[in-house]
Amino acid sequence: xxxxDIISDPVCPWCYIGKTELDRAIAERPNxxxxxxxxxxQLNPAMPAEGMDRKDYLEHKFGGRDGALRAYAPILExxxxxxxxxxFAAITRQPNTMNAHRLIHWAGLEGRQQAVVAAIFRxxxxxxxxxxxxxxxxxxxxxxxxxxxxxxxxxAADADFDATRARDTHARERGVTGVPCFIIANxxxxxxxxxxxxxxxxxxxxxxxxxxxxx
Length: 215
Prior knowledge:
CATH class: Alpha Beta
Radius of gyration: 18 Å
CATH topology: Glutaredoxin
Oligomer: single chain
């Protein structure tokens, strides 16, 4: 198997699109060699712990709704081409994603990371859920087979907070300046939301190389 590390932030629409493209490639190549692990990166590390009103966030970052519409136009165009639902209008709160990253880490320890990551993306981009809120994250974890009482206790404390922050810092120190960022076998980097066709090409080449090495 070949390690595929994905550095991402659950509020990043390009990460959602990039995940969708990768998922569809993997569905067409079920014999893919990847072992996938998700890693934290906060696009808004200075976001208040409780998050902020979405309108205030858009005003601060894009100068208001019109600026946001211009920024999101290529995102919506790509999502439409993929038949991927993204409902920006449903999002009323811009979250701090540290709690979501902690949940993703704990899910990885239980072998449930892929399901939890997918559920977090859907909760935010499809349902407008506050993925910074412990209540929301406990429900997501429970739906993916995790213990909600344990998650409630962990989220109420600072469990793995410093470690998650350190992993974010480590990604930046390695030169990651945006997400999604895909690292194959700790050696080859693909930056941005790569199309399904590219992933299929990568998978086919990896499989062929593995066959050659066996021969």
